[in-house]
């Protein structure tokens, strides 16, 4: 019996130990994490004020619509007026070429000095005369005018005999003046009888300074007391109208322009119409300077001329040529002369690498006179052509 009781006690102890082990193992297991707390929801940041960039928004008092003072309409808003464009006073044209003579002579003296040096040789044989011919041809005088000048020089030197430097300079001056021409009327026709305005059309290839020349010519006319309207008929070149308008504003001349790529003839027509209505003295029309080799574009130039002449005949058609192109400019001159009746020539860039003989050559080619020459980039560097001042610049003092 004691054995049975002992066995029961041992079984109870064993069960108790096993139960304690089970409970202990359960206590060592990690508890599951608590559920996440609800996130705090904050309002999005306010838009930064002007000049605040992205700083923290500030608490500012706000007014209701009733508290805002609204204008009652009794006082008109103050509009700040821009100062008017200052009108320039162009330099007088009288004697302008004489004043610019030193600038011209710096680049042209090579011709005059070369000829005087050759003519000063003690013996003028055939080789010397050939050198004189080469000097003239190199200066773009042209073959026929060169032969004419050399023949005249040879005859006069033979008669003169002994030659002092002053006699040679006088002799050369006379022959060059004869070649350039002193009896030709070089006046730019802007004052037709019994009507206003005078109408001048300016033509030429892009790059010759055509639009700039038109603006400078406006200054020449204003300096002589004329009122001017500018017609920006070069509608195919970007900024051409803006450039011309700027030139006009500087001397108080009104500019008529159309849309970019518009009809040039329409702009030219409107310019003459407005010029007549305003009662101005002269209308200057700047035309497109497209490549002269494109027949369709040259036809367009002829159309501009025909449309303008529905108002009145053209008084001047001035062809602008780059003097630095030399004989190549004569090709352009021929083509333009076939499309419109050229009445005068404007030679630009004559103070650069240009050779003065182009004056003679282009006059002989077209049978029309050089009326204006450009001697630099300044606003008043366009001068009426004066043969005596030009020849004096060629041969130097």
UniProtKB/TrEMBL annotation:
Residue ranges, annotated region (Disordered): 24-79
Record's protein name: Signal recognition particle receptor FtsY
Keyword terms of this UniProt record: Cell membrane, Cytoplasm, GTP-binding, Hydrolase, Membrane, Nucleotide-binding, Receptor
Ranges of compositional bias, category Basic and acidic residues: 49-66
Cited Gene3D superfamilies: P-loop containing nucleotide triphosphate hydrolases, Signal recognition particle SRP54, nucleotide-binding domain
Assigned EC number: 3.6.5.4
Gene designation: ftsY
Binding-site residues for GTP, renumbered to this chain: 204-211, 286-290, 348-351
Annotated organism of origin: Streptomyces doebereineriae
Taxonomic path: Bacteria, Bacillati, Actinomycetota, Actinomycetes, Kitasatosporales
């Amino acid at each position: 019996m004691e054995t049975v009781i002992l066995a029961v006690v041992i079984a109870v102890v064993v069960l108790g130990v096993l139960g304690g082990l089970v409970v202990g193992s359960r206590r060592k297991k990690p508890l599951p994490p608590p559920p996440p707390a609800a996130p705090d929801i904050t309002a999005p940041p306010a838009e930064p004020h002007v000049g605040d960039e992205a700083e923290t928004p500030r608490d500012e008092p706000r007014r209701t619509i009733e508290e805002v003072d609204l204008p009652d309409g009794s006082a008109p808003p103050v509009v700040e007026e821009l100062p008017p464009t200052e009108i320039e006073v162009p330099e007088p044209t009288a004697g302008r070429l004489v004043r610019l003579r030193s600038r011209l002579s710096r680049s042209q003296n090579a011709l005059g000095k070369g000829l005087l040096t050759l003519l000063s040789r003690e013996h003028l044989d055939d080789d010397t005369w050939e050198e004189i011919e080469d000097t003239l041809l190199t200066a773009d005088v042209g073959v026929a005018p060169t032969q004419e000048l050399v023949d005249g020089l040879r005859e006069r030197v033979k008669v003169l005999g002994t030659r002092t430097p002053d006699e040679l300079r006088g002799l050369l001056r006379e022959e060059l003046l004869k070649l350039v021409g002193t009896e030709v009327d070089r006046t730019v026709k802007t004052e037709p009888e019994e009507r206003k305005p005078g109408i001048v059309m300016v033509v030429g290839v892009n790059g010759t300074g055509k639009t700039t020349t038109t603006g400078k010519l406006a200054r020449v006319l204003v300096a002589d007391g004329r009122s001017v309207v500018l017609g920006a008929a070069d509608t195919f070149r970007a900024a051409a109208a803006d450039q011309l308008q700027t030139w006009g504003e500087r001397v108080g001349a009104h500019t008529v322009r159309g849309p970019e790529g518009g009809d040039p003839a329409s702009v030219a027509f409107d310019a003459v119409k407005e010029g007549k209505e305003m009662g101005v003295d002269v209308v200057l029309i700047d035309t497109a300077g497209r490549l002269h080799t494109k027949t369709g574009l040259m036809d367009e130039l002829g159309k501009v001329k025909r449309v303008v002449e529905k108002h009145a005949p053209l008084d001047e058609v001035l062809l602008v040529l780059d003097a630095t192109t030399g004989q190549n400019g004569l090709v352009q001159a021929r083509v333009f002369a076939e499309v419109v009746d050229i009445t005068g020539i404007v030679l630009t860039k004559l103070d650069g690498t240009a050779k003065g003989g182009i004056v003679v050559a282009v006059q002989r080619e077209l049978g029309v006179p050089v009326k204006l020459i450009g001697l630099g980039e300044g606003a008043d560097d366009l001068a009426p052509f004066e043969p005596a001042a030009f020849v004096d610049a060629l041969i130097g003092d």
